[in-house]
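Example record for the data management plan.
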Amino acid sequence: MLGCTHRCAAWRAFRGASPASHADRGFLPSDPVYRGLQWEQADRVYAGFWTNRGDCTDEMGELLAGLAGKEVFLFGTCGFGADETYFAGVAARAATHLPESAQIVGTFMCQGRMPSSVRRRYEHTAAQNPAQAARMAQLIANFDEAAAHPNDDDLVRLRAKVQAALSA
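Corresponding structural encoding:
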């Protein structure tokens, strides 16, 4: 799995959803210590990421670009809302980083935590610009909701998508 550490909730969900014969294939957590793993030998790669400006991170985009000929399952978290249309757009933008020879075997997106600095920025904006206070209150409410994700329901849905991809 690209982009997630062993502490990542999505990684734990994947581990719980996949048979032992698949659970350790193609893993490359984003921690630099794991960069030497032989993930290039995997037929299928589970690429996990967080959303950055409506797409995967630049680092993930570079890694995805190197997955020629691989089966790829994309999954990630978005700080903003539980909107399936937005989630599909993020997954589609992340998929554009893949070479044409890569095959997407599944995708999954859910709401996810954001850094506390985001909430502080919203609060600061609301205080400095009263005309934006109502909008910032909405963003703060979304931030607070996102703090509980990925939750157990998200992980159940991820497991189902992973299992479907494994049996396809």
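Summary line stored alongside the record: Strands lie at 44-50, 71-78, 103-111.
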